[in-house]
Design a protein that fits this description.
Helix content: 10-25%
Largest sheet: 3 strands, antiparallel
Shape: globular
Order of helices and strands: EEEEHE
Structural class: alpha+beta
Number of helices: 1
Oligomer: single chain
Strand content: 15-25%
Distance between the termini: 34 Å
Radius of gyration: 15 Å
């Protein structure tokens, strides 16, 4: 796996700052950020997902909070195309 550094929390004061890397072979984003707190997890469960899909977070996953100013480091395709499963 070859990772390419994309960005870190601007003007970071310490070693525990949100960071983003790109796995060049798969295009996956590797994100270090703050774990979502219990209130955020509860709100995510209330907001729901696609019909019939559990809102429980499996043991092998976690929910992170990505600060808005980190979005600048996420690569975008030349022509924006909606991806993922929005349930619609």
């Amino acid at each position: 796996m070859a990772l390419k550094f994309l960005g870190i929390w601007p003007n970071t004061p310490d070693d525990g700052s949100p960071t983003i890397w790109l796995e060049e072979e798969t295009g996956d984003l590797i994100i270090q950020s703050w774990k979502a707190d219990e209130e955020t997890l509860r709100q995510a469960q209330e907001a729901g997902s696609v019909p019939g899909h559990s809102t429980d977070v499996p043991e092998h996953e976690t929910v992170i909070r990505l600060p808005a100013n980190m979005l600048q480091f996420i690569p975008r395709p030349d022509s924006e195309v909606n991806g993922g499963n929005s349930g619609t």
